[in-house]
Design goal:
This protein has 421 residues and is mostly helical. The protein has one domain. Helix content is 86%, strand content 0%. The chain has 14 helices and no strands. It starts with 6 loop residues before the first helix and ends with a helix.
Protein backbone atom coordinates (compact mmCIF):
# COMPACT_ATOMS: atom_id res chain seq x y z
CA UNK A 1 0.00 0.00 0.00
CA UNK A 2 1.43 3.43 -0.96
CA UNK A 3 2.10 5.92 1.82
CA UNK A 4 -0.95 8.16 2.25
CA UNK A 5 0.92 11.12 3.73
CA UNK A 6 2.22 13.85 1.41
CA UNK A 7 5.89 14.74 0.93
CA UNK A 8 5.36 17.91 2.98
CA UNK A 9 3.93 15.80 5.84
CA UNK A 10 6.90 13.44 5.71
CA UNK A 11 9.40 16.31 5.52
CA UNK A 12 7.85 17.78 8.66
CA UNK A 13 8.13 14.40 10.36
CA UNK A 14 11.77 14.03 9.32
CA UNK A 15 12.65 17.38 10.92
CA UNK A 16 10.91 16.39 14.15
CA UNK A 17 12.42 12.91 14.23
CA UNK A 18 15.89 14.23 13.44
CA UNK A 19 15.70 16.66 16.34
CA UNK A 20 14.61 13.92 18.74
CA UNK A 21 17.29 11.58 17.38
CA UNK A 22 20.02 14.15 18.01
CA UNK A 23 18.53 14.84 21.44
CA UNK A 24 18.58 11.11 22.20
CA UNK A 25 22.18 10.69 21.04
CA UNK A 26 23.38 13.68 23.06
CA UNK A 27 21.30 12.76 26.09
CA UNK A 28 22.82 9.28 26.33
CA UNK A 29 26.21 10.82 27.06
CA UNK A 30 25.44 13.87 29.22
CA UNK A 31 22.25 13.11 31.22
CA UNK A 32 23.61 10.00 33.00
CA UNK A 33 26.55 12.15 34.12
CA UNK A 34 24.08 14.59 35.67
CA UNK A 35 22.34 11.71 37.43
CA UNK A 36 25.71 10.51 38.73
CA UNK A 37 26.85 14.02 39.78
CA UNK A 38 23.70 14.82 41.75
CA UNK A 39 23.11 11.33 43.11
CA UNK A 40 19.81 9.59 43.70
CA UNK A 41 18.69 11.87 46.57
CA UNK A 42 19.03 15.22 44.74
CA UNK A 43 17.61 13.71 41.55
CA UNK A 44 14.73 12.41 43.65
CA UNK A 45 14.07 15.93 45.01
CA UNK A 46 14.14 17.43 41.51
CA UNK A 47 11.76 14.80 40.17
CA UNK A 48 9.44 15.25 43.16
CA UNK A 49 9.20 19.04 42.59
CA UNK A 50 8.67 18.47 38.84
CA UNK A 51 5.92 15.94 39.59
CA UNK A 52 4.21 18.20 42.13
CA UNK A 53 4.26 21.29 39.88
CA UNK A 54 3.36 19.05 36.95
CA UNK A 55 -0.02 18.45 38.57
CA UNK A 56 -0.75 22.15 37.98
CA UNK A 57 0.32 22.00 34.31
CA UNK A 58 -3.28 21.90 33.00
CA UNK A 59 -4.01 25.15 34.88
CA UNK A 60 -0.77 26.75 33.65
CA UNK A 61 -1.46 25.88 30.00
CA UNK A 62 -5.29 25.55 30.12
CA UNK A 63 -5.34 22.56 27.74
CA UNK A 64 -5.00 24.95 24.80
CA UNK A 65 -2.08 23.33 22.94
CA UNK A 66 -3.89 20.81 20.75
CA UNK A 67 -6.98 23.03 20.40
CA UNK A 68 -4.93 26.01 19.22
CA UNK A 69 -3.11 23.91 16.61
CA UNK A 70 -6.37 22.40 15.36
CA UNK A 71 -8.05 25.82 15.12
CA UNK A 72 -5.08 27.29 13.21
CA UNK A 73 -5.26 24.38 10.76
CA UNK A 74 -9.01 24.84 10.25
CA UNK A 75 -8.99 28.68 10.33
CA UNK A 76 -5.60 29.79 8.97
CA UNK A 77 -6.58 33.48 8.63
CA UNK A 78 -7.00 33.87 12.40
CA UNK A 79 -3.59 32.53 13.46
CA UNK A 80 -2.37 35.81 15.01
CA UNK A 81 -5.58 36.24 16.98
CA UNK A 82 -5.43 32.64 18.24
CA UNK A 83 -1.78 33.03 19.31
CA UNK A 84 -2.35 36.39 21.03
CA UNK A 85 -5.44 35.19 22.87
CA UNK A 86 -3.88 31.87 23.92
CA UNK A 87 -0.69 33.51 25.21
CA UNK A 88 -2.59 36.15 27.22
CA UNK A 89 -4.87 33.62 28.91
CA UNK A 90 -1.96 31.36 29.82
CA UNK A 91 0.10 34.30 31.15
CA UNK A 92 -2.75 35.40 33.45
CA UNK A 93 -3.15 31.83 34.66
CA UNK A 94 0.61 31.57 35.38
CA UNK A 95 0.58 34.78 37.45
CA UNK A 96 -2.37 33.67 39.59
CA UNK A 97 -1.04 30.14 40.16
CA UNK A 98 2.53 31.27 40.88
CA UNK A 99 1.35 33.73 43.53
CA UNK A 100 -0.79 31.00 45.12
CA UNK A 101 1.99 28.40 45.15
CA UNK A 102 4.64 30.79 46.51
CA UNK A 103 2.29 32.03 49.25
CA UNK A 104 1.60 28.43 50.26
CA UNK A 105 5.33 27.65 50.44
CA UNK A 106 5.99 30.77 52.53
CA UNK A 107 3.15 30.16 54.98
CA UNK A 108 4.06 26.46 55.40
CA UNK A 109 7.75 27.44 55.84
CA UNK A 110 8.88 24.95 53.20
CA UNK A 111 12.33 26.54 52.99
CA UNK A 112 14.28 23.45 51.89
CA UNK A 113 12.76 23.28 48.41
CA UNK A 114 11.61 26.91 48.02
CA UNK A 115 14.43 27.89 45.62
CA UNK A 116 13.81 24.80 43.52
CA UNK A 117 10.09 25.59 43.25
CA UNK A 118 10.85 29.22 42.32
CA UNK A 119 13.23 28.24 39.53
CA UNK A 120 10.82 25.68 38.11
CA UNK A 121 7.99 28.23 38.17
CA UNK A 122 10.07 30.55 35.99
CA UNK A 123 10.61 27.57 33.71
CA UNK A 124 6.83 27.37 33.29
CA UNK A 125 6.75 31.10 32.48
CA UNK A 126 9.29 30.63 29.69
CA UNK A 127 7.34 27.64 28.37
CA UNK A 128 4.41 29.94 27.54
CA UNK A 129 6.34 30.93 24.40
CA UNK A 130 5.56 27.53 22.91
CA UNK A 131 2.45 29.21 21.42
CA UNK A 132 4.83 30.25 18.63
CA UNK A 133 5.66 26.57 18.09
CA UNK A 134 1.96 25.90 17.56
CA UNK A 135 2.04 28.16 14.49
CA UNK A 136 4.94 26.26 12.92
CA UNK A 137 3.21 22.95 13.65
CA UNK A 138 -0.05 24.10 12.06
CA UNK A 139 1.79 25.42 9.00
CA UNK A 140 3.99 22.28 8.72
CA UNK A 141 7.14 24.38 8.99
CA UNK A 142 8.97 21.99 11.26
CA UNK A 143 12.44 23.13 10.16
CA UNK A 144 12.06 26.23 12.36
CA UNK A 145 11.19 24.04 15.34
CA UNK A 146 14.24 21.90 14.52
CA UNK A 147 16.54 24.94 14.38
CA UNK A 148 15.16 26.28 17.66
CA UNK A 149 15.41 23.04 19.58
CA UNK A 150 18.84 22.04 18.25
CA UNK A 151 20.32 25.48 18.95
CA UNK A 152 18.89 25.36 22.46
CA UNK A 153 20.10 21.78 22.88
CA UNK A 154 23.70 22.72 22.02
CA UNK A 155 23.72 25.61 24.51
CA UNK A 156 22.07 23.55 27.24
CA UNK A 157 24.43 20.60 26.74
CA UNK A 158 27.43 22.91 27.11
CA UNK A 159 25.99 24.36 30.31
CA UNK A 160 25.17 20.89 31.64
CA UNK A 161 28.68 19.68 30.83
CA UNK A 162 30.09 22.67 32.71
CA UNK A 163 27.89 21.77 35.68
CA UNK A 164 29.02 18.15 35.62
CA UNK A 165 32.75 18.95 35.39
CA UNK A 166 32.49 21.51 38.23
CA UNK A 167 30.18 19.30 40.37
CA UNK A 168 27.52 22.00 40.72
CA UNK A 169 24.34 21.50 42.74
CA UNK A 170 20.76 20.67 41.82
CA UNK A 171 19.75 24.37 41.69
CA UNK A 172 22.19 24.99 38.85
CA UNK A 173 20.73 22.16 36.74
CA UNK A 174 17.19 23.36 37.51
CA UNK A 175 18.16 26.84 36.18
CA UNK A 176 19.53 25.22 33.03
CA UNK A 177 16.22 23.39 32.49
CA UNK A 178 14.34 26.69 32.80
CA UNK A 179 16.75 28.46 30.45
CA UNK A 180 16.09 25.84 27.76
CA UNK A 181 12.52 27.11 27.23
CA UNK A 182 13.61 30.77 27.24
CA UNK A 183 16.14 30.12 24.46
CA UNK A 184 13.58 28.23 22.37
CA UNK A 185 11.01 31.01 22.78
CA UNK A 186 13.51 33.69 21.73
CA UNK A 187 14.43 31.74 18.58
CA UNK A 188 10.76 31.15 17.69
CA UNK A 189 10.17 34.89 18.04
CA UNK A 190 13.03 35.70 15.67
CA UNK A 191 11.81 33.08 13.18
CA UNK A 192 8.33 34.64 13.17
CA UNK A 193 9.83 38.09 12.57
CA UNK A 194 11.27 36.90 9.25
CA UNK A 195 8.27 34.73 8.37
CA UNK A 196 6.29 36.34 5.55
CA UNK A 197 3.08 34.54 6.51
CA UNK A 198 3.03 35.94 10.06
CA UNK A 199 2.71 39.51 11.36
CA UNK A 200 3.29 40.58 14.95
CA UNK A 201 1.26 43.71 14.17
CA UNK A 202 -1.82 41.52 13.71
CA UNK A 203 -1.46 39.93 17.16
CA UNK A 204 -4.63 40.62 19.10
CA UNK A 205 -6.64 39.40 22.05
CA UNK A 206 -10.27 38.45 21.61
CA UNK A 207 -12.44 37.82 24.67
CA UNK A 208 -15.09 36.00 22.62
CA UNK A 209 -12.44 33.78 20.98
CA UNK A 210 -10.89 33.16 24.40
CA UNK A 211 -14.24 31.93 25.72
CA UNK A 212 -14.66 29.62 22.72
CA UNK A 213 -11.15 28.21 23.08
CA UNK A 214 -11.63 27.60 26.81
CA UNK A 215 -14.95 25.85 26.25
CA UNK A 216 -13.37 23.61 23.59
CA UNK A 217 -10.25 22.95 25.69
CA UNK A 218 -12.05 22.31 28.99
CA UNK A 219 -12.19 18.50 28.55
CA UNK A 220 -8.49 18.53 27.60
CA UNK A 221 -7.67 20.66 30.64
CA UNK A 222 -9.45 18.18 32.92
CA UNK A 223 -7.85 15.18 31.20
CA UNK A 224 -4.41 16.85 31.36
CA UNK A 225 -4.89 17.32 35.10
CA UNK A 226 -5.78 13.68 35.44
CA UNK A 227 -2.72 12.74 33.36
CA UNK A 228 -0.36 14.71 35.60
CA UNK A 229 -1.93 13.16 38.70
CA UNK A 230 -1.82 9.79 36.98
CA UNK A 231 1.91 9.96 36.20
CA UNK A 232 2.81 11.55 39.55
CA UNK A 233 1.09 9.04 41.84
CA UNK A 234 3.98 6.57 41.80
CA UNK A 235 6.48 9.26 42.86
CA UNK A 236 4.27 10.33 45.76
CA UNK A 237 3.95 6.71 46.94
CA UNK A 238 7.68 6.04 46.57
CA UNK A 239 8.49 9.13 48.66
CA UNK A 240 5.88 8.23 51.27
CA UNK A 241 6.88 4.58 51.68
CA UNK A 242 10.61 4.90 50.99
CA UNK A 243 12.75 7.99 50.20
CA UNK A 244 14.10 10.45 47.63
CA UNK A 245 16.61 7.72 46.73
CA UNK A 246 13.78 5.50 45.44
CA UNK A 247 12.40 8.38 43.36
CA UNK A 248 15.89 9.05 41.99
CA UNK A 249 16.33 5.43 40.89
CA UNK A 250 12.90 5.29 39.26
CA UNK A 251 13.64 8.70 37.73
CA UNK A 252 16.54 7.14 35.80
CA UNK A 253 14.17 4.48 34.43
CA UNK A 254 11.63 7.11 33.40
CA UNK A 255 14.33 9.19 31.77
CA UNK A 256 15.61 6.30 29.63
CA UNK A 257 12.16 5.10 28.55
CA UNK A 258 10.15 8.34 28.45
CA UNK A 259 12.71 11.17 28.35
CA UNK A 260 14.77 9.61 25.56
CA UNK A 261 12.76 7.00 23.66
CA UNK A 262 9.08 7.91 23.93
CA UNK A 263 9.68 11.43 22.61
CA UNK A 264 10.44 10.04 19.13
CA UNK A 265 6.92 8.65 18.77
CA UNK A 266 5.50 11.80 20.35
CA UNK A 267 7.28 13.92 17.72
CA UNK A 268 6.07 11.77 14.80
CA UNK A 269 2.43 11.80 15.93
CA UNK A 270 2.41 15.55 16.58
CA UNK A 271 4.11 16.27 13.25
CA UNK A 272 1.50 14.28 11.31
CA UNK A 273 -1.57 15.41 13.26
CA UNK A 274 -2.28 18.50 11.05
CA UNK A 275 -2.40 16.15 8.05
CA UNK A 276 -4.86 13.87 9.87
CA UNK A 277 -7.10 16.81 10.78
CA UNK A 278 -7.11 18.07 7.18
CA UNK A 279 -7.95 14.61 5.80
CA UNK A 280 -10.85 14.12 8.20
CA UNK A 281 -12.54 17.26 6.87
CA UNK A 282 -11.76 16.52 3.22
CA UNK A 283 -11.82 12.73 2.71
CA UNK A 284 -12.76 10.34 5.51
CA UNK A 285 -11.38 7.31 3.65
CA UNK A 286 -7.95 8.94 3.35
CA UNK A 287 -8.12 9.79 7.05
CA UNK A 288 -8.68 6.10 7.90
CA UNK A 289 -5.79 4.99 5.69
CA UNK A 290 -3.42 7.55 7.24
CA UNK A 291 -4.52 6.61 10.73
CA UNK A 292 -3.99 2.90 10.03
CA UNK A 293 -0.51 3.49 8.60
CA UNK A 294 0.48 5.68 11.56
CA UNK A 295 -0.81 3.05 14.00
CA UNK A 296 1.31 0.33 12.38
CA UNK A 297 4.38 2.59 12.50
CA UNK A 298 3.84 3.31 16.22
CA UNK A 299 3.40 -0.39 17.04
CA UNK A 300 6.70 -1.17 15.32
CA UNK A 301 8.44 1.71 17.13
CA UNK A 302 6.97 0.71 20.51
CA UNK A 303 8.08 -2.90 20.11
CA UNK A 304 11.51 -1.71 18.96
CA UNK A 305 11.97 0.40 22.11
CA UNK A 306 10.95 -2.50 24.37
CA UNK A 307 13.28 -5.00 22.66
CA UNK A 308 16.14 -2.48 22.72
CA UNK A 309 15.99 -2.02 26.49
CA UNK A 310 15.50 -5.73 27.15
CA UNK A 311 18.73 -6.44 25.24
CA UNK A 312 20.82 -3.37 26.11
CA UNK A 313 19.18 -2.00 29.28
CA UNK A 314 21.62 -3.55 31.77
CA UNK A 315 24.59 -2.57 29.60
CA UNK A 316 23.43 1.08 29.49
CA UNK A 317 22.96 1.23 33.27
CA UNK A 318 26.32 -0.47 33.94
CA UNK A 319 28.20 1.72 31.46
CA UNK A 320 26.70 5.19 31.88
CA UNK A 321 25.24 5.22 35.40
CA UNK A 322 26.94 4.84 38.78
CA UNK A 323 26.35 1.98 41.22
CA UNK A 324 23.65 4.07 42.96
CA UNK A 325 21.34 3.21 40.05
CA UNK A 326 21.95 -0.56 40.05
CA UNK A 327 18.42 -1.08 41.42
CA UNK A 328 17.02 0.36 38.17
CA UNK A 329 17.78 -2.78 36.13
CA UNK A 330 14.65 -4.79 36.94
CA UNK A 331 12.22 -1.83 36.78
CA UNK A 332 13.67 -0.90 33.38
CA UNK A 333 12.90 -4.38 32.01
CA UNK A 334 9.28 -3.90 33.12
CA UNK A 335 8.73 -0.24 32.27
CA UNK A 336 10.27 -0.43 28.77
CA UNK A 337 6.95 -1.76 27.40
CA UNK A 338 5.15 1.47 28.35
CA UNK A 339 5.80 3.40 25.08
CA UNK A 340 3.95 0.74 23.07
CA UNK A 341 0.78 1.35 25.10
CA UNK A 342 1.27 5.13 25.36
CA UNK A 343 1.61 5.51 21.56
CA UNK A 344 -1.77 3.81 21.10
CA UNK A 345 -3.29 6.16 23.66
CA UNK A 346 -1.81 9.19 21.92
CA UNK A 347 -3.33 8.10 18.60
CA UNK A 348 -6.69 7.64 20.32
CA UNK A 349 -6.37 11.15 21.79
CA UNK A 350 -5.74 12.63 18.33
CA UNK A 351 -8.78 10.76 17.00
CA UNK A 352 -11.17 12.06 19.68
CA UNK A 353 -9.67 15.54 19.25
CA UNK A 354 -10.38 15.38 15.52
CA UNK A 355 -13.97 14.18 15.93
CA UNK A 356 -14.50 16.58 18.88
CA UNK A 357 -15.32 13.88 21.45
CA UNK A 358 -12.82 15.04 24.07
CA UNK A 359 -14.98 13.96 27.01
CA UNK A 360 -13.56 10.46 26.49
CA UNK A 361 -10.13 11.78 27.50
CA UNK A 362 -11.61 12.72 30.87
CA UNK A 363 -13.25 9.31 31.27
CA UNK A 364 -10.21 7.23 30.36
CA UNK A 365 -7.77 9.15 32.56
CA UNK A 366 -10.21 9.03 35.46
CA UNK A 367 -10.09 5.26 35.07
CA UNK A 368 -6.29 5.44 34.74
CA UNK A 369 -5.89 7.48 37.94
CA UNK A 370 -8.06 5.11 39.94
CA UNK A 371 -6.21 2.06 38.61
CA UNK A 372 -2.77 3.57 39.22
CA UNK A 373 -3.72 4.69 42.73
CA UNK A 374 -4.95 1.22 43.69
CA UNK A 375 -2.03 -0.58 42.04
CA UNK A 376 0.61 1.73 43.60
CA UNK A 377 -1.01 1.29 47.01
CA UNK A 378 -0.83 -2.50 46.66
CA UNK A 379 2.38 -3.09 44.70
CA UNK A 380 4.87 -0.44 45.89
CA UNK A 381 4.95 -1.56 49.56
CA UNK A 382 5.38 -5.18 48.38
CA UNK A 383 7.83 -4.86 45.48
CA UNK A 384 9.56 -1.47 46.00
CA UNK A 385 10.59 0.16 42.66
CA UNK A 386 9.56 -2.93 40.69
CA UNK A 387 6.09 -2.40 42.14
CA UNK A 388 6.03 1.20 40.86
CA UNK A 389 7.10 0.11 37.37
CA UNK A 390 4.53 -2.69 37.29
CA UNK A 391 1.73 -0.48 38.63
CA UNK A 392 2.34 2.22 36.01
CA UNK A 393 2.69 -0.33 33.19
CA UNK A 394 -0.63 -2.04 34.01
CA UNK A 395 -2.29 1.37 34.33
CA UNK A 396 -0.95 2.37 30.90
CA UNK A 397 -2.39 -0.82 29.41
CA UNK A 398 -5.83 -0.18 30.90
CA UNK A 399 -5.84 3.53 30.02
CA UNK A 400 -4.39 3.33 26.51
CA UNK A 401 -5.50 -0.08 25.24
CA UNK A 402 -8.48 -1.42 27.19
CA UNK A 403 -10.53 1.79 27.45
CA UNK A 404 -10.12 2.89 23.78
CA UNK A 405 -10.87 -0.66 22.58
CA UNK A 406 -14.06 -0.90 24.65
CA UNK A 407 -15.21 2.61 23.74
CA UNK A 408 -14.63 2.22 20.01
CA UNK A 409 -16.22 -1.27 20.04
CA UNK A 410 -19.29 0.10 21.83
CA UNK A 411 -19.59 2.98 19.34
CA UNK A 412 -19.28 0.59 16.40
CA UNK A 413 -21.93 -1.72 17.86
CA UNK A 414 -24.30 1.20 18.56
CA UNK A 415 -23.84 2.44 14.98
CA UNK A 416 -24.54 -1.07 13.62
CA UNK A 417 -27.78 -1.47 15.60
CA UNK A 418 -28.96 2.02 14.64
CA UNK A 419 -28.50 1.04 10.98
CA UNK A 420 -30.50 -2.17 11.53
CA UNK A 421 -33.41 -0.15 12.86
Amino acid sequence: MPIAFSRKDLNSTVWFSLEKGIQLFAGVFIIPKIFNTLGTIDIGKLHFVEALLGMFTPLFFLGLSAISIREMVLHPKTCEKIIGTTFTMRLLSWVILSIGILCYLIFTKNVALFSLYLIMLFGYLFRLTDVFEFYFLAKKQAKFIFISKITSLIIILLLQYYGVTHHLDVLYFAKVLALDFLIQGAIYGLALLINKGFSFKKLSVSISLGKQLLIMSFPLMISSGLIMLYIGIDELFLKYYYSDHANGVFGSVQYLVIGLSWTIGFAIINALYPSLAESYNQDNNTYKIKFRQLTIAMIILGLGIAVFYIIFGNYILNTYFSDQYAEAKSPLQIFCWSPLFIFMGMLYEKHVLTINKLEHEVYRFTVGCICNLILCYILIPLYYINGAALAVLISHFITNIVYPFLQLSFNHRSYYFSKQK
